[in-house]
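Consider this today:
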Amino acid sequence: MTLTPAYVMIKEPSNETMSATEECRRLAEPFVVTGEVVHGFGRGSKELGIPTANVDPEVVKAIGTQLESGIYYGFCQLVPTTTATAPQVSNGVVDTTAAHESRPPVYGMVCSLGWNPQYNNTIRSLEAYILHKFDTDFYGSTLRVAIC
């Protein structure tokens, strides 16, 4: 998978240790991550009863130190792979008239970004618990997460 700037919205890294409140103030706008939904460690649904959508570890690596590990809230959207961006008209303005009807729904979510020390993970992960009941799984889909 090739990473492009569309996968991770870059924020200025901080050299200071911050409290959770200070970290929230630093996020003046959502931190957006887009990546493929992949199989995780198999604990969310099976062991904990909380199904999560796991973002591709390569995308999580690209976050680096831009965002502290922790539990965050925000919004997410399953984006069709073929239409990851809204159609553009010739003057560069986003055409929201026709795209609005086919735009995927936005769901509330809570996500964990980190190593899950309870399980001694060695790989940092981003796992989103989407506040919506889905009838089927969506492995291989593209998930856009806006961490607030």
Notes: The CA atoms of residues 24 and 148 lie 8 Å apart. Confidence is low (pLDDT under 50) at residues 1-14, 83-95. The two ends are 26 Å apart (CA to CA).
